[in-house]
Amino acid sequence: MKRLFTTTALVASMAFASAAYAASDDMQNTSKEVTPAEQQDTQAATETPEELLTGSLNESADVLTIDGEAAIMSATAISARDVIGASVVGPDGEEVGVVDDLALAEDRSIEQIIVADGAVFGFGGKDVAIDFQGASITRDENDERTVRIGMTAKALESVSEFDKAPLEESGTRLASTWLDREVTLATADDGSGEVTDLIMSESGTARYAVVEFGGLLEMGDNQVAVEVAELGAAPAGEPFNLSMTQDELREAPKFHYDADEVPQQTDM
Description:
- By secondary structure, this protein is α+β, with helices and mostly antiparallel strands.
- It has helices at 10-15, 49-54, 80-83, 153-157, 165-170, 228-231, 246-250, and strands at 4-6, 18-20, 40-42, 64-67, 70-73, 78-79, 87-89, 95-104, 110-117, 126-131, 136-139, 145-148, 181-184, 192-200, 206-212, 223-227, 240-241, 254-256.
């Protein structure tokens, strides 16, 4: 599965100081008490968009590495779009369901993996919540993700159903509520874009929202990884706001999921 992306406010996260976040509010209807590990997040940058784009790009090795004009997602980073819908496998190697969603804490770290128990091809089954700290996400030679948990299908049958409604209403506490969501750019002339993915560190903290922008002829070529803090919070169903113009976004290096997808000079 090949996709080309352009990354933009990528530089912003490298300049931010890290700050520890406290654990989030208790989740409702969970299968077990949730005690997420403290995650590191970033503070708002003081630079203007122009300074961010023209400044030196630094590496954030746990999520992105910089190679010339390309920004490449690290092998250990997590793509929310790839994980949602992935198979969930128990300790016996048997598939027990699929990932229905990712529940995020207030600091935008993955708190729980919501599993559709007994789902077939993404349909059916009830939703149950599994502590993210008790799961692992693997990738095979075909770049397909699998989530491995310590519960069998029989064990999941006895787990209470998880109610996602309160998280959906928050607008930002489910990974799925970020995807395919409108992003309003700096001016009316710039129009709007759309969030196509959330890029997370190996520890599960959402670091970048991939934003697609431009006209129909540009879609797919103009996709930018923006520090999630730049989008802020927005009520459910409302667009995010990004104070950058299309011209500013176009100055950013292209983002790629894999180094093999970076065009060589002879391909340009």
